[in-house]
Amino acid sequence: MAAAATTCCRRSAPAALLVALLAVAALLCTTTTGGSAAAAGAGQPLDVGYYNKTCSAAEEIVRNETAAAVRESPDLAAALLRLHYHDCFVQGCDASVLLDSTPTNTAEKDAMPNGSLRGFDLVARVKDRLERACPATVSCADILALMARDAVALSKGPSWPVALGRRDGRTSSAGSCGELPPLHGDVNLLVQAFAAKGLDVKDLVALHAV
Questions:
Q1: Local structure of 47: helix, strand or coil
Q2: What is the number of H-type helices and E-type strands within the chain?
Q3: Parent domain of 35
Q4: Is residue 190 in a domain?
Q5: What is the number of other CB atoms lying within 10 angstroms of the CB of residue 169?
Q6: Cα gap 31→195, rounded to integer Å
Q7: Is residue 2 in a domain?
């Protein structure tokens, strides 16, 4: 997972919109049935205490690293939430948006709809910190989910328990990003794109307001 440099800068969203966006991302994790499983294993549901025995400090590490970064660059809060949403909308919440392209495959990260995504450096830093504390334990997919939750809390929104145990995707294709609704497009097409994920017009309005 390599860091990606971008020059895009988006305005930080109000806390209410951040909450709405995270709620939609969470819903996508439960409604998407693509090639990447969201659960810890076959037939195993996500669990709020998933890392209690294997990496009890995981959430604290993620929270501290995220808080330090957002204090330095407040607009990262909205960027992290957007990164989680873009990941979840394609193949489910599997961190496939973090995978790098290869000579024979263009990954999601380098697809046109994802060209303005930010936060890759921070995710890589948090992952490195967790690997030093608990090697080969916490998935990148769970890191994204936790960082998105913490982004809401750091933006004066609420905080709540996050069910964990997602598996990281092993494949990533720019072609699959056609599932992402365009930033500007025909309203009917946008509604159809969201409906295909089990989402409605309210979700569409929340996401396109960020």
A1: strand
A2: 7, 0
A3: 15-181
A4: no
A5: 25
A6: 11
A7: no
Whether residue 41 is contained in a domain is answered as yes
Quick check: 141 and 167 in contact, CB under 8 A? yes
State pLDDT tens for residues 164-207: 999 998 877 666 655 666 555 666 666 666 666 666 666 666 55
- Was 59 annotated as part of a binding site? no
- Tell me the C-alpha distance between 11 and 79, whole Å: 9
CA distance 97 to 69: 20
Q: Is residue 187 part of a domain?
A: no
Residue 161 assigned ligand-binding role? no
CB-count burial class (<10 Å; 0-12, 13-18, 19+) for 210: middle
Q: In which band, very low, low, confident or very high, does the pLDDT at 64 lie, cut at 50, 70 and 90?
A: very high
Reading the block at residue 122, the tokens are 């921070």
Q: Which two tokens stand for residue 58?
A: 């995981």
In angstroms, rounded to a whole number, what is the distance separating the alpha carbons of residues 51 and 74? Answer: 28
**Cα three-residue angle 196-186-203, rounded to 5 degrees:** 45
Q: Domain tally for the chain?
A: 1
Q: Which residues are known to be catalytic?
A: 86
Task: Judge whether 128 is annotated as a binding position.
Answer: no
Question: CATH number for the domain including 101?
Answer: 1.10.520.10
108 in a labelled binding site? yes
